[in-house]
Design brief:
Layout (H helix, E strand, L loop, with lengths): L9 E5 L2 H11 L3 E5 L5 E2 L8 H4 L8 E2 L5 E2 L2 E2 L4 H12 L3 E4 L5 H14 L5 E3 L7 H8 L7 H28 L10 H17 L4 E11 L2 E10 L2 E2 L22 H10 L5 E13 L7 H12 L3 H13 L15 H15 L35 H4 L5 H16 L5 E13 L5 E13 L33 E13 L8 H11 L4 H13 L3 E4 L2 E4 L1 H13 L6 H15 L5 H10 L6 H7 L6 H4 L1 E5 L2 E6 L2 E6 L3 E2 L6 E2 L3 E3 L11 H10 L4 E6 L6 E7 L2 E7 L5 H5 L24 E3 L11 H8 L3 E5 L5 E7 L2 E6 L2 E4 L11 H9 L14 E5 L6 E7 L2 E5 L4 E3 L11 H14 L20
Parallel strand pairs: 1-2, 1-7, 7-8
Antiparallel strand pairs: 3-6, 4-5, 9-10, 9-15, 10-11, 10-14, 12-13, 12-15, 13-14, 16-17, 18-19, 19-20, 20-23, 21-22, 24-25, 25-26, 26-27, 28-29, 29-30, 30-31, 32-33, 33-34, 34-35
């Protein structure tokens, strides 16, 4: 067979179309750059496996658990066309370059391409940390083979996540609620948020007092705070534990009475300077960004979610503005160090650049030096001003942040001095009071001229002294005193995690990979385990149930150290020090005293679902996590005042926006006392005989009918079906009839609604009649008010009460008018959230054709179905607009259907 003629073409495959366009510019003629658009194949759902595999050792996970955990991969249905295109391109190529990202996932994508395309031409693995001409040319000079160890590590991680999720999630379905999921990292992250909320719930505040005063000297005045009384330190917030107990030895705990009397006794006292202590101040710049620190800082400074940050960074990388954004390394290449030092010298002066380059090492657990830090791309950096016209608003802000951090990292230390003045006097009652004031003066800003790192909220911030310049005073100087007042304080609970602080804690504990933090934090919110309250992450009650079950029955799998150790094991596989199949066998089947996941799942024993879903709140009041959400239940039996019979325990719904730590014993009692009756029997429908009840549900009050179950006699009287061989089929369980329901009008309540009104509500929609063309017109109540409907044409009407009074003639009159859209009377917005931080235009929520949407007049985004209008906060609205803005405008292309190809003539 003759060999294939050489064409001179070389096929380069990357992940994304944007990346392919940028790279194509630098490779020039002879190279065809195509995008795989991510992974081309994955593990299928077990239900999608071929019938012959479903009952084998592959059937449970799409992984052969009896043969070295070999995965069964399939090409994704939406990628079959792409694979065919790549195979066609490969036929005309003389060489294949796999240029996917250089991390484990990129290595796995390259391996999958190799397995599926089965090239018969030379194959080269090509990696680069930035998409610039210099980097692409360097990559061509450093080609290699696909790294089998990196692929093994990524495949092991994928299979591990499948085993974990598919074994543990069904337990959650049975004992907590359907549709829940467990994940190797997501469950541990959920536990961290729940643990923090538990700390807040158990927290007991302590009250303490101190004094402040204004003191003056010839050189100026300053504010100082009471530091000691009779040489004993005055207790501050950090001196109390979370039980409200003073833990500092020899500290004096001032209450209101002691503090107020001391302030009064110091009026007119002779204050003098007792000491002046001055120390040099030095502060070093922060290291260049890693994936984790970029997410943290973008959250603090730009208010970006982790997900938005990574989406924007991805676009900046693919278009050649920054280096690869998934990295654990804070190191800079020699070229980048030179570029940063040169730019700092040009912009701020040579005195701002230290003699030797700065070198940064990683402090995070499980850090990998596989990549460079995130920095501006190129051997010379473009300033933010030079790229401003090429980037969107959010892209520019993130690029500017990365540029500032990188340049600052190679600048000199900030230098200055910190002065502490101690001053005091003796009060009228003989107590000695000593005050203190501190201030820092920066004499050389160094890196601060370019950038200053943000910080997360911590307890004790109120006790810290602000940076300020103090007057020049000496020991023994007399000081005037004014405004000496007693100030009361309360200790604060541990602050809730924000996305930034949670990311920092995950990195510190070595849980998961920084490249997955954004998707993990997004997942626990999408699953309903965590919601945002402002920027704080608040766990749901269902998260408490999930974490409690996992802690009691799968303890190791939500243990922080165990999870971090797993990451270490996966790193060993990536470094070729361990084999994935061997590790998976130990994880799943266990060894010696270590039982393994399978054994734990098979020997769970009895799990008390009621106990798992219960949280004691107060004496006699327990929170239950039910099918339709959390509710309070009294353990004290309720007695019917008329009959004296014991009835169901009293219950009360828990407001969805009430954070767990806000559900105190007092609040629980209040909710129980003010709870509307959960259910009220209104009577029987005279036509059906069904009982009609009014209920308070999770989404508001409604009425419904109770359809009785079929009796054994009725079931026995059902017709019998037979097989073809004449044998009777087993009786089918009859399909339950769907009860009629109807939401109460705003003017109605469970306590006052009548049977007649309930029957009217359950009869909706009401048919008014037909128009001249025979189209049926109905009237009904909807989420946003009453409306008429004729086919797909809906028209709003005035009030809910009109539903039962409007006539066909009135409806036809409404339909005879043209449907008003832009010209209709202005409708007030559903919600307003003030100016957007980017566009500076007012953010409002409006009702649109496809439901409510958020807009600042420039960018529109539909309110997610998982978020109710009541739950929507300003922070969430800003975040959604930022994510939509980051995606850019939707590109609309007009495509023409190609004419059908004629079938080739048979030979």
């Amino acid at each position: 067979m003759p060999s294939k003629a050489k064409t001179g073409k070389k096929l380069v495959i990357v992940e994304s179309p944007a990346k392919s366009k940028t790279i194509a510019k630098y490779l020039g003629e002879g190279f065809i750059v195509e995008a795989s658009i991510g992974h081309i194949r994955d593990l299928p759902q077990p239900s999608e496996l071929p019938a012959e595999l479903k009952k084998t050792s592959v059937g449970k996970f799409a992984v052969d658990v009896e043969n070295d955990f070999k995965p069964y991969y399939v090409v994704s249905p939406d990628k079959k066309k792409k694979v065919a295109e790549l195979k066609a391109q490969l036929k005309d190529a003389d060489a294949l370059y796999l240029a996917t990202d250089g991390d484990r996932e990129g290595e796995a994508i390259a391996w999958h391409l190799l397995e599926v395309l089965k090239p018969k031409v030379p194959v080269y693995r090509m990696t680069f940390g930035e998409i610039t001409k210099e980097a692409i040319h360097r990559a061509m000079d450093n080609l290699r083979d696909v790294d089998a160890a990196l692929v093994d590590a990524q495949e092991t991680r994928r299979i591990l996540d499948r085993l974990y999720g598919y074994e543990i999630s069904p337990v959650l379905w049975r004992k907590v609620a359907r549709g829940l999921s467990a994940g190797r990292v997501q469950s541990v992250v959920t536990r961290m948020v729940v643990d923090r909320e538990r700390e807040r719930m158990a927290f007991k505040a302590a009250s303490y007092w101190d004094l402040t005063g204004q003191f003056g000297a010839e050189a100026g005045s300053f504010k100082a705070k009471l530091a000691a009384v009779d040489n004993a330190k005055v207790a501050s917030g950090r001196d109390f534990n979370d039980d409200g107990v003073l833990t500092a030895r020899n500290a004096v705990h001032l209450n209101e009475e002691l503090a107020t009397s001391l302030a009064a006794g110091l009026e007119g006292a002779d204050f003098r300077v007792r000491s002046v202590d001055t120390k040099p101040y030095t502060r070093r710049p922060a290291a260049p960004f890693t994936t984790s620190t970029l997410q943290q800082e973008a959250g603090r400074k730009l208010r970006f979610s982790s997900k938005s940050t990574m989406q924007i960074a991805q676009r900046l990388y693919e278009n050649g503005y920054i280096t690869y954004m998934r990295t654990d390394s804070s190191a800079l290449s020699d070229e980048a160090v030179t570029a940063a030092r040169r730019q700092a010298s040009e912009l701020y002066g040579p005195e701002y650049v230290p003699q030797s380059p700065r070198v940064y090492s990683n402090k995070a657990a499980n850090a990998q030096e596989a990549h460079e830090a995130i920095r501006p791309a190129g051997d010379s950096f473009r300033t933010p001003a030079q790229v401003a016209s090429q980037l969107s608003g959010d892209e520019f802000r993130l690029y500017e942040l990365i540029w500032k951090r990188t340049v600052a990292s190679q600048m000199g230390d900030a230098k200055g001095s910190t002065a502490t003045i101690r001053l005091g006097a003796v009060a009228a009652d003989g107590r000695d009071a000593e005050f203190s004031a501190s201030g820092t003066v920066i004499t050389f800003p160094g890196f601060l001229a370019a950038y200053e790192e943000g910080k997360d909220e911590t307890r004790g911030d109120e006790d810290s002294d602000e940076a300020r310049r103090l007057p020049n005073v000496a020991k023994g100087d007399s000081l005037s005193a004014s405004d000496i007042v007693a100030v009361g304080h309360e200790t604060s609970p541990p602050p809730r995690y924000t996305e930034a602080s949670l990311t920092a804690e995950l990195e510190k504990k070595g849980i998961g990979r920084p490249s997955t933090y954004a998707s993990t934090i997004s997942t626990i919110q999408d699953r309903g385990y965590v919601r945002k309250q402002g920027s704080a992450l608040v766990p749901s009650w269902i998260a408490f149930s999930v974490v409690r079950l996992l802690e009691q029955h799968f303890h190791d799998y939500v243990d922080y150290e165990f999870t971090a150790d797993m990451e270490g094991d996966l790193d060993k596989i990536a470094n070729g020090q361990a084999v994935g199949a061997t590790w998976l066998k130990h994880f799943y089947y266990g060894e010696d005293a270590d039982p393994g996941l399978l054994s734990i799942v098979n020997n769970l024993g009895e799990i008390d679902a009621r106990e798992i879903n219960s949280v004691p709140i107060a004496d006699g009041i327990t929170l239950r996590v039910g099918k339709f959400g959390p509710y309070l239940e009294s353990s004290v039996p309720t007695v019917d005042p008329k009959t004296g019979e014991v009835v169901e325990a009293a219950r009360a719904n828990v407001p969805e926006d009430l954070a767990p730590d806000e559900l105190t014993a007092e609040k629980a009692v209040e909710l129980m006392e003010t709870a509307a009756p959960e259910e009220r029997v209104l009577g029987a429908d005279p036509h059906t005989g069904h009982t009609v009840v009014a209920k308070n549900g999770r989404y508001g009050a409604y009425v419904t009918e109770i359809i009785p179950e079929m009796t054994e006699e009725q079931l026995a009287s059902l017709p019998v079906e037979y097989y073809k061989n004449g044998k009777p089929k087993p009786p089918k369980k009859p399909v339950k009839a769907k009860p009629r329901t109807g939401s109460l009008f705003k003017s109605m309540s469970v306590e006052t609604i009548t049977l007649d009104e309930a029957l009217q509500l359950m009869s909706l929609p009401r048919v008014l009649g037909e128009d001249a063309e025979g189209n049926v017109i109905t009237v009904q109540n909807g989420r946003f008010g009453p409306y008429l409907k004729k086919g797909t044409d809906s028209r709003s009407i005035g009030s809910e009460e009109e539903i039962f009074t409007i006539t066909l003639e009135q409806a036809l009159e409404i339909y005879s008018q043209p449907k008003q859209r832009g010209a209709r009377a202005a409708v007030p917005p559903l919600a307003e959230f003030g100016p957007d931080p980017v566009s500076e235009k007012n953010i409002v929520v409006k009702e649109g054709r496809f439901g409510p949407y958020i807009t600042d007049g420039v960018t529109n985004i539909t309110v997610p179905r998982s978020t109710s209008l009541e739950e929507l906060t300003r922070e969430r609205a800003v975040e959604l607009l930022a994510e939509k803005r980051a995606k850019g405008p939707v590109k609309r292309t007009t495509t023409r259907k190609a004419p059908a190809k004629k079938a080739a003539a048979k030979k």
